Amino acid sequence: MKSVSKQNIYVFFIDNDDSYIRDVLAKIEEVNNYNIKIYSRSSDFIEDFRLIEQSKNKMCIVFLSDSLEMDEDNNQVDVLEVLKNIKQINPKAEVILYSENDDINIVSSAFHYGAYTFIKKNENLILRIENNIKGIISQKNFLIKKEASRKFTLYFLVFVASVSVLLIILYFIFPQWFIY
Predict the structure, then answer these.
(1) Which of 52, 143, 147, 158 has CA 20 to 30 A from 178's CA?
(2) Residue 56: helix, strand or coil by DSSP?
(3) Rounded to an integer, what distance in angstroms lies between the CA atom of residue 121 and that of residue 140?
(4) Residues 16, 32: Cα–Cα separation, whole Å
(5) Region 80-88 average pLDDT
(6) What is the pLDDT of residue 164?
(7) Longest dimension (CA), the chain
(8) What is the pTM of this model?
């Protein structure tokens, strides 16, 4: 039974204030155990994210700030559009929206478009980042074990059915073998 190895866990942060995220990550002990990359521009992230080969063994966790960079028309990039792009590129990527405010419209829309959860930027951000990463990994490992258990059960049932069919065939071909 396999589980997700830490070298196959990719954690991305998209925030126009990348120095803030670097400060947060410096306080997380297990940060070196994952492949972490920070982006200050969502467009750069989307370009790189398209290049990541998707597989069952790779896990992508994206922490997406609601305050992103300005586009070429000097409008703020829409966080929901970035979320949609991420989910379109890799539907299995877990996207966690984080923000200083908790605008219910953005949060509910983010859930509608596939966000895993929402966390608020406050003094508990470090703990919430760690807990969400560990929770997602734990959930993925549980699903892997569940799938392995299903396969084992299926193989066992096929084996039992095969032995039963074989015994029935042998009974009709060689009934004398089954007489006491």
Answers:
(1) 158
(2) coil
(3) 25
(4) 22
(5) 92
(6) 94
(7) 90
(8) 0.80
